[in-house]
Automatic annotation (TrEMBL):
This protein's name: MI domain-containing protein
An example Gene Ontology CC term for this record: nucleolus
InterPro entries: CWC22_splicing_factor, Initiation_fac_eIF4g_MI
Subcellular location: Nucleus
Taxonomic superkingdom: Eukaryota
Species of origin: Monilinia laxa (Brown rot fungus)
Coiled coil region boundaries: none
Domain MI, first and last residues per copy: 1-82
PROSITE patterns: MI (PS51366)
Gene Ontology biological-process entries: ribosomal small subunit biogenesis
């Protein structure tokens, strides 16, 4: 069961630059455990612990909330090729982006808040190699998700994907 208390603690810890980097490195280690590699990786990473779906979903919710609330930036995903992901990493990223889109709308009192999503996704302008991967993943996976919850949540996620996609497209101009 996902416990938001641990996310609150993690957000406080991310206020310290060194601990924020530790969270980033732990996320990258998590991707290695799920089978993701890149050319810079050492192949001696131990994969002795199998991650079950519940564990992956809970971690994705935590990291998604951290990103939505500003504890971490989307640029921590720069090591991933979002067009070609392992099954577990794809599930993780799908839940992560759903969480980000839903969490950004929780504080909005009057309808949907386009500006929050646009601000969050516009921060990837410093890592332009991420833009097309994010566009692809949001359009092909997150926008067509069936795990977002009820109809209202699914509609919010679909709308959020469009806003994020438009923001990313503007960054390419």
């Amino acid at each position: 069961m996902y416990n938001p208390y641990y996310t609150l603690i993690a957000k406080r810890l991310c206020g310290d630059r060194k601990l924020k980097m530790a969270f980033q490195f732990s996320l990258w280690d998590l991707f290695k455990k799920m089978g993701e590699t890149n050319d810079d990786d050492d192949d001696d990473f131990e994969e002795d612990t199998e991650l079950d779906t519940r564990h992956i979903v809970n971690l994705a919710k935590m990291f998604g909330t951290l990103m939505a609330e500003g504890g971490l930036g989307l640029n921590v995903l720069k090591n991933l090729n979002l067009s070609y992901l392992q099954a577990k990493t794809k599930t993780f990223c799908e839940v992560l982006f759903i969480t980000i889109l839903l969490q950004t709308q929780k504080a909005s009192k009057e309808g949907r808040d386009e500006k929050t999503i646009a601000n969050l996704f516009s921060r990837v302008k410093d890592t332009p190699q991420m833009i097309t991967g994010l566009q692809y993943f949001l359009k092909k996976v997150v926008g067509k998700t069936d795990i977002a919850g009820g109809k209202v949540e699914k509609d919010t996620v679909k709308w959020g994907c469009k806003v994020a996609g438009d923001t990313l497209q503007d960054l390419l101009k």
